[in-house]
Design a protein that fits this description.
This protein is α+β, with helices and mostly antiparallel strands and 225 residues long. The chain contains six helices and twelve strands. Strands 8, 9, 10, 11 and 12 form a five-stranded antiparallel beta sheet that branches. A three-stranded antiparallel beta sheet has the order 2-1-3, with helices on one face.
Length: 225
């Protein structure tokens, strides 16, 4: 970390940017250009930010940046957070929660509200995945579920005080599979434009369709016997 200094880098159009740490301003400008200006270094403004030098190797608090002229959007209420807005609302910069590369909240109330909503969403999303797994197990018997990115997902949202599952799916391996996993997918009415309840649907790769249909039929026949 020796020799690193803080630089405030912003792009010209919307003043989007960050406090970066580099040995020279040109290195900071290059990074900012790639991140915020499609690689065009001429669109980047870079100035020393000595007030952040002591944070080398650490996250930069949004509150400190606000004290030096930056602004953020509250991840809770969506309001702009800067010194004048905080003063107008009777809030203090010391109460701002978050770092420049993370969620930022104008105060504890917004942070609590957001985290409470996210906890509710996560619980409902986990329940949706277990619901789909249960349907799969009842329909075709024991299968090997596959987790991880792109294999299992659920999304819950709230509108007007009512929570709903917008979409969810689970993936699993099956006998005869050659190309990829099969899945059981649910899309809520708002997602697919339907009116009223919707049903989960089976899905698999086109090249595995015959194999999956044979697998499902054999499993259903065995369960019925």
């Amino acid at each position: 970390m020796c020799g690193l200094k803080a630089f405030a880098c912003t792009e010209d159009d919307e003043s989007t940017g960050a406090v970066l740490f580099a040995t020279h301003d040109i290195a900071a400008k290059r990074w900012a250009a790639n991140e915020y200006a499609d690689g065009d270094i001429t669109r980047i403004q870079c100035r020393r930010a000595k007030w952040a030098d002591h944070l080398v190797g650490s996250a930069v608090p949004a509150s400190l940046m606000i004290e030096h002229g930056w602004h953020f959007e509250c991840s809770g209420c969506g309001a702009r957070i800067d010194l004048s807005e905080l003063d107008e609302k009777g809030l203090t910069v010391a109460g701002v929660i978050g770092m420049q590369d993370d969620l930022v909240f104008c105060g504890p109330e917004c942070a609590l509200w957001y985290r409470s909503r996210r906890a509710t969403a996560k619980r409902l999303e986990a329940e949706a995945i277990m619901w789909l797994r249960g349907i799969a197990l009842r329909s075709i018997g024991t299968v090997e579920f596959v987790t991880g990115f792109g294999q299992e997902h659920a999304y819950a949202s709230e509108r007007g005080g009512r929570w709903t599952i917008e979409q969810a799916f689970v993936s699993f391996r099956f006998d005869g599979m050659e190309i990829g996993t099969a899945s059981l997918r649910y899309h809520g009415p708002r997602w697919c434009g339907a009116h009223g309840p919707t049903r989960p649907e089976w899905s698999c790769c086109a090249g595995d369709k015959e194999a999956f249909e044979a697998f499902a039929k054999a499993r259903q026949t065995r369960e019925a016997a």
